[in-house]
Automatic annotation (TrEMBL):
It is found in: Membrane. InterPro entries: ABC2_TM, Phage_infect_YhgE_C, Phage_infect_YhgE_N, T7SS_ABC-Transporter, xxxLxxG_rpt. It comes from Lentzea pudingi. This is ABC transporter. It is a multi-pass membrane protein.
């Protein structure tokens, strides 16, 4: 009797009546009921979160132009991710299970978010009230939602703060630009002042030299008049000398007076420039926002710097007036001396007056000479001070003009983009090599594998693992084993076909490789049927129990939900050794579009289990050709 014949006889035996046929149909539907109903119920639970009741308590009173509590509430209600109920209090509702969780925004939420502006920074606190007695995963999802709310609020507040900071930089740049303009004008004015003081220094030096010459001439005039007075006997000659000397003095004094008046005009013009510069500087400083006290301090400092100029100007103006008087007097002296030679009467009296005037003129010229020499000594100091002021003003201008370019000054779109990057610097770009469409699709490989194992398990509640007739007839052990495995293998293929069809077209879980997925499921079914067939053939009723034990071991080690690496290390050998982990791995690659090379390795391992299980069934068939008392009357029958 061939293995196919034995398989056909077994199928005919289990379908030899109406009720057995219904039983076989029920066996074919067991994996369908397990896999399809569970996957249907869990296909996309996240799409139904809007049915989950959650409480939202908004106590935030707002702060300034920010009402973060209202903004958060509006976003949550608009998103409709949960069935939000806006209430005043929610603790009792969460305790009684009316709400899965509650989110509370406290009264000072907005105030805390803006507290950094008052230099009293503190965090805004979101209160999440959960109760795992309601649902553990609900609490976990709520924590994720609150984390997202926290991230969004943080990004918004940080972005607004960064935008204000950048806007402040723009304002600082604008004001600094104004300061640069003022510094430029100050530098230009200081340079002009330095140049004018240089001209003044040159003029004062020349004036001092002329004053020395005039003083020498006046001294000579004084000596001459003294001599004239003492030598009245030689009146005609003396008068002639006096007339000549007086005319020389008059000419020198006229020249000195003319030069003195010219330099006096320049000195007065310089004082006018300084006065105007003081006014311009005060105006610029006030425009730049300096206080009146600061402006007056600067003017006082400038006044101290220009004091030598003012003093020199006063002396120059006085000297010019004195020289004009001296020139006028000298001219009169010369005229008188000339008249003296023609008008001898009254000469003695005139000589006396001339001597007195010459003495006064000599004394005045000496005072003028001393004053101009002091002025000539002070103007170099004033010149150095003006040069330092010009250099400092130039450095101020260079520093401000160089620094203004380092201050950010973005336009509105650029500033908004930079603020967004500062406030929310990290974005996540998802790059999924393979992806399950829904939560149910993600669990499908695991539950399809479990359903296939359970389907194989229930087959041998009805099928006999080995044909007693074939054993009694002394058939080949391998033939008997194959004959016992083939009916289950055939029904297993039927189970897989029905299950795959419903999961694909009714539950609507679409594999990336549908033909490969079905073929791999068929291989899984053949392997699992062979394993459970071997256990039943070798151990009888105990084999059914061992099949349940293997199911439990594979549930905890296959890595169907969490990555298998998360199981305790002592369970690693179970993952590597048992077939369910390879079955789940192969289905994932076929359903999600992963690397098919891994599928080949998984298929080879399942084939190895299939061959090994058939070998064990053959050994069991060989041993059961010998009838024993326990076999005729077993202690346990399931």
């Amino acid at each position: 009797m061939s293995a196919l014949r034995m398989a056909f006889n077994e199928i005919r035996r289990v379908t030899s009546g109406k009720l057995p046929k219904l039983a076989v149909l029920a066996l074919a539907l067991v994996p369908l009921l397990y896999a399809s109903l569970y996957l249907y119920a869990n296909k996309d639970p996240y799409a139904n979160l809007n049915h989950v009741p959650a409480a939202l308590v908004v106590k935030d009173k707002g702060a300034k132009d920010l009402n973060a509590g209202k903004d958060v509430a509006d976003e949550l209600l608009k998103g409709q991710k949960f069935n939000w109920k806006v209430v005043d209090e929610a603790d009792e509702g969460v305790r009684k299970g009316e709400y899965i969780f509650a989110l509370t925004l406290p009264e000072d939420f907005s105030e805390a978010l803006t507290s950094a502006e008052q230099n009293k920074p503190r965090q805004g606190v979101l209160t999440l009230t959960t109760n795992d007695a309601n649902n553990y995963l609900g609490s976990t999802i709520a924590n994720q939602v609150v984390s997202e709310v926290r991230r969004a609020v943080t990004a918004k507040v940080s972005t607004e703060a960064a935008d204000k900071l950048l806007l402040g930089f723009s304002t600082i740049r604008q004001e600094t630009t104004k300061a640069v303009d003022g510094a430029k004008q100050l530098a230009d004015g200081s340079a002009t002042l330095r140049d004018k003081i240089g001209e003044l220094d040159t003029g004062v030096q020349q004036l001092s030299t002329g004053a020395v010459t005039a003083a020498n001439g006046a001294a000579q005039l004084r000596d001459g008049t003294h001599e004239l007075r003492s030598q009245t006997a030689a009146l005609p000659d003396g008068a002639k000398k006096i007339a000549d000397g007086a005319r020389q003095v008059a000419t020198g004094n006229e020249t000195a007076a003319t030069q003195a008046e010219e330099y006096a005009k320049k000195a007065q013009a310089l004082v006018g420039v300084l006065d105007q510069a003081n006014g311009d500087i005060a105006t610029r400083l006030r425009a730049l926002g300096f206080t009146e006290e600061q402006v007056q301090n600067v003017l006082t400092t400038l006044g101290q710097v220009r004091k030598p100029v003012d003093d020199a100007n006063g002396k120059v103006q006085g000297a010019a007036g004195d020289l004009r008087k001296l020139a006028t007097g000298a001219d009169q002296v010369a005229a008188g001396a000339e008249q003296l030679s023609s008008k001898m009467p009254g000469l003695v009296a005139g000589v006396g007056r001339l001597d007195d005037g010459a003495t006064k003129l000599a004394d005045g010229n000496a005072q003028l000479r001393d004053g101009l020499q002091k002025a000539a000594t002070g103007t170099p100091q004033l010149k150095d001070g003006a040069a330092k002021l010009a250099d400092g003003s130039k450095q101020l201008y260079d520093g401000l003009s160089g620094g203004v370019d380092k201050i950010p000054n973005q336009d509105d779109p650029t500033r908004a983009a930079i603020a967004q990057a500062i406030g929310d610097p990290v974005a996540v770009r998802g790059l999924s090599q393979t992806k399950a469409a829904t939560y149910g699709a993600g669990l499908a490989p695991f539950f399809l594998g479990l359903a296939t194992w359970i389907g194989a398990f229930v087959l041998f509640l009805l099928l006999r693992p080995l044909s007693r007739r074939a054993l009694a007839a002394g058939q080949s052990a391998l033939r008997v084993a194959l004959g016992g495995w083939l009916p289950g293998a055939l029904l297993g293929i039927v189970q897989v076909f029905v299950m795959f069809t419903v999961v694909r077209f009714v539950v609507d879980i679409e594999p990336s490789n549908p033909f490969g997925t079905f073929g791999f499921l068929a291989l899984m079914s053949l392997t699992f049927v062979a394993i459970l067939h071997a256990l039943n053939a070798a151990f009888g009723a105990v084999g059914k129990f061992l099949g349940l034990i293997l199911l439990i071991l594979q549930l905890v080690s296959a890595g169907g939900t969490f990555p298998w690496q998360t199981i305790p290390v002592p369970l690693y050998p179970l993952h590597y050794g048992l077939p369910m982990g390879y079955a789940v791995d192969g289905l994932r690659h076929l359903m999600y579009g992963g690397d098919l090379g891994s599928v080949g390795k998984d298929a080879l391992i399942l084939l190895a289990w299939l061959v090994g299980a058939l070998a064990l069934s053959s050994v069991a068939a060989y041993k059961q050709r010998v009838w024993t008392a326990s076999k005729l009357k077993p202690e346990l029958v399931l």
